[in-house]
Amino acid sequence: MFDTNKNTVILIRDATTLPPNLSIASNAFFPGWQIVTSPDRPTFTRSVEAAHWNFFYRANETRATVLGGASLRTLRRAVKQILGKQENQNFNALEVTTILSKRFLGIPFLRTVAHLRHIQESSALVPSKAFVSQGPGHRAAESGTSSGEPHRAVQYATAK
Q1: What is the dihedral of CA 61, 117, 4, 111, to 10 degrees?
Q2: What are the tens digits of pLDDT across the range 115-142?
Q3: Which terminus of the chain has a smaller tally of CB atoms within 10 A, N or C?
Q4: Is pTM beyond 0.85 here?
């Protein structure tokens, strides 16, 4: 069982770079994701910001409803469903803001609401792959050569 009164849960993707002085306690939630057990969300957010890093919050919410009682197993299924809806997003954290256990005609279900979060040092909310832009010779390089093989466009990284 988990505490359904604790509505805010922070999940962090494995191998996420965190500020150097930030110490957290976490447990494996499911492959590739850790659940932050300590500190709580407000303290975690303040610690990230105190290190002059950013903990971005995406206002769009994602909802999931799964059958089952208030258990960690049911919460895992709900979070998997939420992450499945956000496959193409390059965010490294997730904040579950609502965990509501209910019954309908005696059948238990769990309603979950989550927001994507992203921890990074840079103040620009652009995932690292999107920092790559085409160089000035992009159109000329696409035209190809006399041998029929196209040139590869040079890409310039603009990230720190």
Answers
A1: 30
A2: 999 998 877 666 545 444 444 444 444 4
A3: N
A4: no
Question: How confident is the model over 10-67, as pLDDT tens digits?
Answer: 999 998 888 988 888 899 998 999 999 888 888 898 999 999 898 888 888 899 999 9
Structure tokens at 14: 């494995």
What are φ and ψ of residue 42, in 5° steps? -60, -40
Per-residue tokens: 105: 């005609």
Look at the chain and count its residues: 160
Three-state helix/strand/coil letters over the chain:
CCCCCCCCEEEEECCCCCCCCCCCEEEEEECCEEEEEECCHHHHHHHHHHCCCEEEEEEEEEEEEEECCCCHHHHHHHHHHHHHHCCCCCCCEEEEEEEEEEEECCEEEEEEEEEEEEEECCCCCCCHHHHEEECCCHHHHHCCCCCCCCCCCCEEECCC
